[in-house]
Structure formats: C-alpha cells, structure tokens
Amino acid sequence: MGNTELMAVVTINKEAVGGDVPIFFASTEEEQAKIANTLAQVLRSMVHDVGNGVYCIVRH
C-alpha cells in the first residue's frame, strides 16, 4: 500500500478503540465529524468512516 499511515482516530465510542495513535473523543456525531475534518486538513490526510462510531484519519 505504499506510504499509508494511520494518523489519528476520532470516536464517540470509547470502548471501540485503543492503541498507540492519537485518539480524540467526541460527544456527538456532529462534533466527531468536525474534529475529523479539521484534523484531516491539518494533517493533509483523508477521513475514513469505519462504522460503529469510529473515524480513522489516514495519510495516503
């Protein structure tokens, strides 16, 4: 896959995530989407909705 890198995770479901990447917790889906999109712009990355209340920020 080349230089694909997981940059961060944004979630509303604290039980669904873990690991050694930055994890951002949101209270609502609207807040989650705003945080994810802002991070993607700052990190020059893409947002991927993996379901169950989790967005991954990935640099391709």
Report on this structure.
With 60 residues, this protein is of the alpha+beta class. It has one domain (5-59). Helices cover 25% and strands 37% of the residues. It is built from one helix and four strands. The chain has one helix at residues 29-43; strands spanning 5-11, 23-25, 46-51, 54-59. The protein has a four-stranded mixed beta sheet with strand order 2-1-4-3, covered by helices on one side. β3 (46-51) and β4 form a beta hairpin. The protein starts with a strand and ends with a strand. The model has no long low-confidence stretch (mean pLDDT 95).
Strand % is: 35-45%
Q: Biggest β-sheet: count, sense, barrel?
A: 4 strands, mixed
Strand order of the largest sheet: 2-1-4-3
Total count of strands: 4
Q: What is the H-and-E element order?
A: EEHEE
Low-confidence stretches: none
Task: Return the average pLDDT rounded to an integer.
Answer: 95
Fraction of helical residues: 25-40%
Globally, the shape reads globular
Judged by helices, strands and strand pairing, the structural class is: alpha+beta
What's the helix count? 1
- What is the distance, rounded to the nearest whole angstrom, between the alpha carbons of the first and last residues? 8 Å
